[in-house]
Amino acid sequence: MTDMNAQNNGRVPGGFAADIATDLTSGRVVDLAEVYALDALDDAERAAVEHYLAAAQQAERSAFNERVRQARETLATSFTAEEEPPAGLLDRIVAALPAQPAGRLADGGPAAGRPDPAAPPVAAQPVREPAERPVADELGAARRRREERRRPQGMRNWLVGVAAAAAIALGGVGVGAYVANQNDPLNQVLQAGDKRQATVEVSGGGTATVTISSSKDAVVVRMNGVPAPPAGKVYQMWLIPKDGSAPVSQGLMDAEALSKPAVVKGIASAAALGITVEPAGGSARPTLPTVAAAPLGA
Amino acid sequence: MTTVQMDRRPGRPVAAGYTPGDARPGPESTAGTLCLKVMDTPNAPNPEAAAPPAPATDVNRRLGALLERIARGDQSAFAEFYGLTSRRVFGMARRVLIDPELSEDTTQEVFLQVWQNASKFNPEAGSPLAWLMTISHRRAVDKVRSSQSSTDREAKYGASSQEIDHDSVSDEVGSRLEAEAVVRCLATLTATQQESVRLAYYGGLTYREVAEKLNAAIPTIKSRIRDGLIRLKSCLGVS
To answer: How high is the ipTM of this complex?
Structure first.
């Protein structure tokens, strides 16, 4: 074992523990930056790191972010496998591009519709302008076309789509996740033997990963790279019952809550989980377009 | 019709595109691919050997300018961005996922994300290439973890790792000089550091899975990844 330890400046003495929770409590979060940048944490551990950082001192957070940034630059420079993508892929992608928000397109002149770089992240597109072209429909149509084209080639176990109807990648998830707090509901789901995971696209950017456990009768929802809701709006989660009755609100997610995994219980009678954008304070019934939805298949 | 209007049709199944009959295919053929490449001798650390390469500043400047145009809805800028980077994105997806169709779909998702999120690209948080490859790797890893068991992934990694990483650096992205610096700098890592980083990066394994795979202690693997990437960073002069 010749692992180098020359770069030890400023490091907490001692080595890593076996589990991430202990690393965090012993003040080693910054040393996890490279493992984090490499996507070498499982979902629960990544969430734990992010949760820790959200409450950490600014200096520690900055140090972590800087190390992550450097690691990502290093990886992008060092791992440069290249392969020619299939012919026609660009055309298929362009055909599936959602419309940019009105006013962004070329004829408006250089400044027209230019997003202010200082402005907060662009909100979920489909809800910005209710009259806007239905992005989801275009994408869904493109996806269906593509699937029809491909169906003869064999089974497809997942589907691409940027809006509601979902890219599904249900299946067994690797076992062996270990998290210190075995007893909290979040970890119970994430460590359940029967857990299944799916990632669905969120209209407007990012994804939502759902981890479903029938035995725990719960689903964990984690948003990845989803923009904050527009001013005066919140994300609201719903369970859509199997029996066709009205969706049942499972709570609201504001900008802050977006970074944390949420546990939704009582999924046995639900057909699907949906996320909508609603006015601040939430709605009794979903009123605006769904930005993400995942079948629970429980 | 994929935007679900739940208020109007509350009982409608939400995932119109999901067919239960779309069963996942079984593991891809893994027979014969289980032998993981074993690196025989540690490379002697030699930090002096590698001069820091000029970073891919030209490419990144071009990509940054293109992203600004893409943020304004410029499809020709998008096509140019794709032309400059699609080999990298698809190449990464193929390494991680192996399956050509999954790789193609991942590539498509990545570029859709570029289109949608170009306005959120922040040059201060990193270069355009690092931003793009971060998105790409995350997508590929999410997909591989949700669709394949870790055993499959290890087996597939074994198959993919037979090739050299820097066999096909094109003139489009990155320069020859830079590629040579990378080869030199990778050689300053110990064999075990290289192996751990590669298993995680191209194998899509977590550090825990890397430890199991290599039969090493978990803290050791975390250290190898950290130290390996830091050494590589220093050698490449990444600032």
So the answer is: 0.73
